[in-house]
Design brief:
Leucine-rich repeat, LRR (right-handed beta-alpha superhelix); two-stranded antiparallel ribbon; 5 helices; about 120 residues; three-stranded parallel beta sheet; alpha/beta
């Protein structure tokens, strides 16, 4: 993910349909997983959110259909609080439950340039 952290040219990234969340996230295991040496194993949300805290060029990210779980939703929500560049994020067809969605929506702030309305 270091290449995403420091990339200065890419503005759009489509990682959809890659199952990067994996089975553990799909089953909504929100507690960190540990390896055989008792070290924390990153989820897809860990790696992506960490990279996007630093990235200042990516404006569009598609993470749909990836079996991302609530833990990734929480971490991506925290990232949205610091990343001011990302304008479009697709998380459709994942397994982000209420707790993950709550963190995501808490950090999403409407902008004055928003033109989308619902009647």
């Amino acid at each position: 993910m270091q290449s995403l952290q420091y990339n200065e040219t890419m503005t759009s990234l489509d990682l959809s349909n890659n199952i990067i969340g994996g089975f553990r996230e799909f089953m909504n295991k929100t507690a960190p997983r540990l390896d055989e040496h008792n070290r924390r194993v990153e989820t897809a949300g860990d790696a992506i959110s960490q990279a996007l805290r630093i990235n200042t060029t990516l404006t569009k990210l598609d993470l749909g259909w990836n079996q991302l779980g609530s833990r990734s939703g929480i971490l991506l929500g925290e990232m949205l609080g610091t990343n001011k560049t990302l304008k479009w994020l697709n998380l459709g067809y994942n397994s982000i439950k209420d707790v993950g969605a709550q963190h995501l929506f808490t950090e999403v702030k409407p902008t004055s340039t928003s033109t989308s309305t619902t009647k």
